[in-house]
Amino acid sequence: MMLQKTARASAHQRDSDHVPSHSVFGFWLYLMTDCIVFASLFAVFAVMSHQFAGGPSGKELFDIPGVAMETAVLLLSSITYGFAMIGANRRKKGVLIGWLAVTFVLGAAFLMMEMQEFSHLIAAGAGPNRSAFLSSFFTLVGTHGLHVTLGLVWMAVLVVQAIRAPELGERELRRLTCLSLFWHFLDIVWIGVFTFVYLASVI
Length: 203
Hints:
The protein contains seven helices and no strands.
């Protein structure tokens, strides 16, 4: 009797793993709404980018080499996440967890550099309340940083789930795929921030 129940449970699990899921499609819809949010923030920055209120401009404030280092770290994290997905698709749990750990460290390093930049600007009297330009800057870049923070929390949860799972099934792969879409999306947004906010402000 117990063996029959176990067999039925295993069969049910296999069937549920192969049931078509709408979670990835639904996550694409979520990313569309996030695109609208960031597009709105970019539009606000475009309008406010020359409203300095007698304060410093981006050319005076931004450290382009430092921001370039932030950009390189975040883009590298996207590559390491790709390696993690290769391991996941090959059902190699150790490879997946290892590359996710590297990605997490890179994402955390990006956030630390961003927080140092914010701290430096505020200490120099260039906080978000100094001008409309700085308000829009902090809002846009801070929103991206918040998304990276949420992505790191999500990544940590998936690592714990992967460790506890007896094997990597379709459900785990779907969750990893959704985070992959989110993480690469944040890279694309940051490229826009680096180009449109930082580089355009110092030219």
